């Protein structure tokens, strides 16, 4: 997701950034994404930790990358065997990059949705095995989505969260694993 941040020369320069897929079929592939205010891809080390927690491969899983941003999490899931990955993103430059990277990788399991994450979630009828939530750090979207996501989860689904401030409470959720990398707090949850 494109995160709110103060405008800077680098945020408006149009320069492209890159990320590397770290495992699976697209391992070592380099993907470009545009500069954007607050665009902050999940670091390699954090993605590696998440997929270690999940068991490396996720064959046949249906995944949702809500607030997709650079697509680092969603493309990593597709690379590791997910049958379907829905990436929802609102920022037009990020959506264009997601589509270009889907084409570059020939990632037929990836579906890019351009639109507001909360509005899309309210209309969604699909169920997911893994939901990856990396909303803007300065928002309350994480709590909103956690309150709404339950009907969209399969029986043994996992929810990955990434935030700048760990919530004081996570009612209805069991924290399976958690970690910290710099200012980023992340965790793997299961519905109780």
Task: Write structural notes for this entry.
By secondary structure, the chain is α/β, with parallel strands linked by helices. It has one domain (10-191): Vaccinia Virus protein VP39 (Rossmann fold, 3-Layer(aba) Sandwich). The protein has five helices and nine strands; from the N terminus they run ββαβαβαβαβαβββ. It has helices spanning 44-54, 72-79, 92-105, 117-123, 141-148, and strands spanning 16-20, 30-34, 62-66, 84-89, 110-114, 128-133, 153-163, 173-181, 184-191. The strands form two sheets. Strands 5-4-3-6-7-9-8 form a seven-stranded mixed sheet, with helices on one face. It has a two-stranded antiparallel ribbon with strand order 1-2. α3 (92-105) links the parallel β4 (84-89) and β5 (110-114). The radius of gyration is 15 Å and the shape is globular. The two termini are 27 Å apart.
Question: How many helix segments?
Answer: 5
- The helix content is 25-40%
Number of domains: 1
Output the CATH homologous superfamily.
Vaccinia Virus protein VP39
Q: Per CATH, what is the topology?
A: Rossmann fold
- Round the Cα radius of gyration to an integer and report it: 15 Å
N-to-C CA distance: 27 Å
Q: Give the SSE order as H and E letters.
A: EEHEHEHEHEHEEE
Strand order of the largest sheet: 5-4-3-6-7-9-8
Oligomeric state of the chains? single chain
Calculate the mean pLDDT score and round it.
90
Beta-strand content bin: 25-35%
What shape does the CA trace take?
A: globular
């Amino acid at each position: 997701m494109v995160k709110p941040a103060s405008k800077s020369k680098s945020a408006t320069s149009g320069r492209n950034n890159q990320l590397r897929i770290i495992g699976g079929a697209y391992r070592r592939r380099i993907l470009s994404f545009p500069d954007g205010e607050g665009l902050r891809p999940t670091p390699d080390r954090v993605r590696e930790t998440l997929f270690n927690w999940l068991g490396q491969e996720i064959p046949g899983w249906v995944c949702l990358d809500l607030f997709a941003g650079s697509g680092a999490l969603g493309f990593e899931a597709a690379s590791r065997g997910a049958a379907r990955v829905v990436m929802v993103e609102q920022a037009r430059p990020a959506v264009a990059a997601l589509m270009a990277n889907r084409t570059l990788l020939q990632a037929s399991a990836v579906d890019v949705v351009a639109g507001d994450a909360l509005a899309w979630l309210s209309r969604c009828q699909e169920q997911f095995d893994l939901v990856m939530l990396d909303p803007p750090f300065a928002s309350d979207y994480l709590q909103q989505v956690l309150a709404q996501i339950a009907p969209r989860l399969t029986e043994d689904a996992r929810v990955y969260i990434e935030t700048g401030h760990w919530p004081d409470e996570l009612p209805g959720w069991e924290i399976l694993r958690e970690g910290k990398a710099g200012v980023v707090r992340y965790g793997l949850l299961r519905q109780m």
